[in-house]
Amino acid sequence: MRTLKGILLGAGMTTILLSACASNNGAKMTVSGLNPAKFDSIIGGKKTELITIKNQSGMEVCLTNYGGRVVSLSVPDKNGKPTDVVLGYDNISQYADTARTPSDYGSSVGRYANRIKNATINVEGKTYKLRANDMMNCLHGGGNTGWLNKVYDVKSKNDSSVVFAITAKDGENGFPGTVKATATYTVKSNNTLDIVFQATTDKETVINMTNHSYFNLNGDPSKEGYNQVMYINADKFTPSDRFYIPTGEIKDVAGTPMDFRKATAIANKYDPSYDQIKNATGYDHNWCLNTFKDGKGDDKTVAASLYSPKTGIFMEVFTNEPGIQVYTGNFQGTGISCKHGIKYPKHVSVCFESQKYPDSPTKFAAKTKGWEISNPYLKPGEKYYSHLAYKFSTKK
């Protein structure tokens, strides 16, 4: 989904007190070329840091507790060269400057990822007005005041895993219920980044968490990424209007540029005259995954994949969720210098957001046909669980 959307419009710069910790001043650079000291800060009275997790197979993932974000993800290419495959910044200042460098790069999004129409939900017969930050809609839980710009607590960490925790108060951005949530990131021995989102609430609410990493597997994010080969395991998708809100239809991908059931270069499918692509200036849509059947998601079967013929890096995506939003960097290309000073062009990346369908609170409450599998409601005593995994390998 878009990086520089209405998500953070009107936001002022988050109050930052930079205070590089002496303990990190001598820290060595990460494999991806990050300086941990540039992530040591105090934001909103809470300490931020860079955390590195890795395995013995050449995979390194660097994260910050600011937004529970993946900052870099390095895996070997076909020649064994470590390659950072996600977009982002190389310092905490840019992540936290929601006025000049707004982004959702790599974040753990909550309380509700994607859009809710007219920023309104109905829970237990009561209407709640949410924070509108994407025109009249609520996007990613309220944008600059949502979880992607909160400092998570580091609940635990070791060489291969970190657990981020957050508590969202009742009424935050208009949402009912105090929610306690965690995002657990684990690097596995087979070069998989495994992500588990969990949450509980003290009052019925809606919840939809995801990771928002932008992938470019080519090893050069200064160039467009439409040469990447994409596969989406879905026979259907949910068309959207010009405001990116699903119409309520569930349409077949057959015969349209939305059909990625056979892996193909994105450029080969891209048709700017097709209404859905024209509206979004690229792909920014939800696909209804074939891996979700009978009310349960199969997170052992590939939901989507991405491949770079240039580096040979191959990524498979697994999830237990019913849908996946695929966004192709349509609003990148702003001229802002990002990680290592690179200015990302338009269509440089692909984001795979595992999720409940966009605007599920509206469509589910209205009993829209086909949306019954996308129940966004969480009640007290229930436990929310969402699984997402990115598995990397290479092809010669």
UniProtKB/TrEMBL annotation:
Gene3D superfamilies the record matches: 2.70.98.10
Calcium found in the keyword field: yes
Catalytic activity: alpha-D-glucose = beta-D-glucose
Assembly with partners or alone: Monomer.
Protein family according to the UniProt entry: Belongs to the aldose epimerase family.
Natural source organism: Prevotella herbatica
Range of residues in the leader sequence: 1-22
Pathway assigned in UniProt: Carbohydrate metabolism; hexose metabolism
Family matches, as CDD domains: galactose_mutarotase_like
Superkingdom of source: Bacteria
Keywords: Calcium, Carbohydrate metabolism, Isomerase, Signal
This protein's name: Aldose 1-epimerase
